Amino acid sequence: MTVFIMPCWKKRFERAAVIFGCLLFLGAALAGSIEPNSATLAPDERGQALTADFVIHLGPRLEEAVGRGVPLNFRLEFDLTRKRLYWANEHVAGHVINYRVSYQALTRQYRLTMDNLHQNFDTLDDALRALGHVSPLHVIDKNALIPGETYTAAVRLSLDHTQLPKPLQVDALADRDWRIAAKTLRWDFVPTIEK
Questions:
Q1: Given CA atoms 143, 148, 149, 151 in this order, what sign does their dihedral have?
Q2: CA–CA distance, 16 with 1 (Å, rounded to integer)
Q3: What are phi and psi for residue 97, nearest 5 degrees?
Q4: Angle between the 124-132 and 60-67 helix axes, to the nearest 10 degrees?
Q5: Quick check: 99 and 113 in contact, CB under 8 A?
Q6: CA-CA distance, 74 to 159, in Å (whole number)?
Q7: pLDDT tens-digit readout, 78-101
Q8: Cβ(48)–Cβ(145) under 8 Å?
Q9: pLDDT (tens digit, 9 = 90+) per residue, 12-29?
Q10: What does the alpha-carbon distance between residue 24 and residue 9 come to, in Å, rounded to a whole number?
Q11: Phi (first) and psi of residue 107, to 5 degrees
């Protein structure tokens, strides 16, 4: 009798292990993410300006950390390259902006900081929504582009783990709850000829 029961239990154990592994993978995927929705380059008075939108989900562990006073630093990276035949791609322009989201316990507000500019919000969701919307930002000078040439633009918003307090940097390396998956959005860009 036990000879027939053992293979049955073995199959159930294997199925349970597969289901448990899938749940762990889904839990890691739900830890946090930054998804780019859209990004465009439009002419401005000095050249080209970037407009982009991101959807930011921190995950419960990072939301709790911000609420307890741990500031989170984000990095917006823009890169423009030109493809060349028989040679490496040419770097045409690049731009990096650092943001910081923190909680002010005295005022019970969340603060979004970019350079010396500060903006306060009542909720973390409002602060993240403002962080995820990049209004027209000058990134390329006029003389850097050749009209009619095809360029590849890339934009990425990510959590800067190197700016976390030192004890939390170790947690960020070892614990998946401290990681945020940040995707890069790439698109082809052809500047128009000015008249």
A1: positive
A2: 23
A3: -130, 135
A4: 110
A5: yes
A6: 4
A7: 999 998 877 888 889 999 999 999
A8: yes
A9: 555 545 455 544 444 444
A10: 22
A11: -95, -10
DSSP 24: H
In contact, 120 and 110? CB cutoff 8 Å: yes
Strands 72-82 and 151-159: antiparallel
Tokens encoding 38: 């859209």
Please state the φ and ψ torsions of residue 56, each to the nearest 5 degrees: -115, 125
Tokens, residue 134? 């990049």
Length of the chain: 195
Q: Count other Cβ atoms within 10 Å, centred on residue 21.
A: 10
As separate numbers, helices (DSSP H) first and strands (DSSP E) second, the chain gives 4, 10
Task: Give pTM, 2 decimals.
Answer: 0.76
Residue 134 C-alpha from the chain's centroid: 12
